[in-house]
Amino acid sequence: MASLMTLWLIVLGTSLVCFATKVAGYLIPERWIHHERVQRINGLMPIVLLSALVAVQSLTTKTHLVIDHRLAGIAVALGALVLRAPFPLVVLSAALTSGLLVHWHLA
Amino acid sequence: MVFSIPSTTLRQSFSVAFTVGLYGTAFGAASVAAGLTVLQTCLLSLLTFTGASQFAAVGVVSAGGGAVAAIATAGLLGTRNALYGLQMAPRVQARGWRRILAAHWTIDESTNVGIAQETLGAAAVKAGFWLTGGGVYLFWNLFTLAGALGAKAIGTPEAWGLDAAVPAAFLGLLWPRLTSRATRIIALSAVVFSLAATTALPLGTAIIASAVVAVVAGWQA
Fold first, then answer.
1. Less Cβ crowding at N or C end of chain B, within 10 Å?
2. Residues A88, B191, A64, CA angle at the centre, nearest 5°?
3. Which ranges of B6-121 would DSSP assign to H, the alpha helix?
């Protein structure tokens, strides 16, 4: 678990960087970042980072690959998304599946 | 600032603000489950105010990452807000403290609802932007507090499935972006890369390292 000091650094650092990025959008001339390649890479960034977050959070513990209750939760969430369920239902179905497996000591 | 607001703009802004604000519950709970205090969780929503970056920061923390990895991942996810700012600056035309506030409220939802009002005129664009930005800010922060207090009250995150709810929330944010075959292949590549990186790289750096997938994929048109 990260120390309280590290967590404060993360809270303030993240806020500062994200706020500065937003303000920059209002201040810098458009041509500076109107570069086709930069825009393309930037557009792919959320897809890549969110995919990595899904994978790491559901399939790893520390530096190991682990298959456990979380994967079952994600599988149900995936099914909910395919069935076009709204966001809160997607999250709840994953939590319920995973929580019940832990409760019943199944995974 | 704005004197007459079209009712469709008002309706759209409110429904988007409330629905998105509800996600704040998931963030608040995830953040507390990752080990942040309720105060730290609420400050992230108040000061960072861009959901994907906030989720990423606490996601890196719960994956064992340090401050640099968490801030860099969140920062990279937040760069799109600068592009939104470029689009909104000439439409909002705010000066002084209003420009700072406009920048802080420039997120996916306020930008998209704002621009969607274009057919109703420039005033409706401004109204849609401000109402959605302010509305999401209000609800996102209220629901963050609710989620954080809720998670605090229940104690063990695993027993309540919170450790699965967090990646499910990421999946929910990712899903609407997987609109083409190319994006699905890139997403799958990032999954494989991040898992391999987890076993090979220092603890907590796998997610930020995956950014290289976006650079490689986006290099060529």
1. C
2. 100
3. 7-33, 38-43, 51-62, 67-78, 80-92, 97-104, 108-116
Residue at A22 is within a domain: yes
What's chain A's length in residues? 107
pLDDT at residue B104, as a whole number: 98
Task: Measure in Å the smallest separation between the Cα of A34 and chain B Cα atoms.
Answer: 9
Chain A, chain B: beta-carbon pairs less than 8 Å apart: 306
Structural domain that includes position A17: 1-34
Q: Which helix (H) or strand (E) holds A61?
A: strand A60-61
Number of domains in chain A: 1
Per-residue pLDDT of chain B (221 residues; tens, 9 = 90+): 545 788 888 988 988 898 888 889 889 998 999 999 999 999 999 999 999 899 999 999 988 889 999 999 999 889 889 888 988 998 999 999 999 999 999 998 899 889 888 889 999 999 999 999 999 999 999 999 999 999 888 777 777 888 888 789 889 888 988 999 999 999 999 999 999 999 998 877 888 899 999 999 999 86
Asked, for residue A59, whether it belongs to a domain, the answer is no
Contact (CB<8Å) B103/A25? yes
* A75 inside domain: no
User: A59 CB contacts (<8 Å, ≥6 apart)?
Assistant: A65, A66, A67, A70, A71, B195
Q: In angstroms, rounded to a whole number, what is the distance separating the alpha carbons of residues A5 and A3?
A: 5
| Residue A100 domain-assigned (yes or no) | no
Residue found by looking up tokens 């470029």 in the block = B86
Q: Residue A77 corresponds to which tokens in the numbers above?
A: 């969430």
Identify which of A59, A65, A57, A105 has the alpha carbon closest to the alpha carbon of residue B33.
Answer: A57
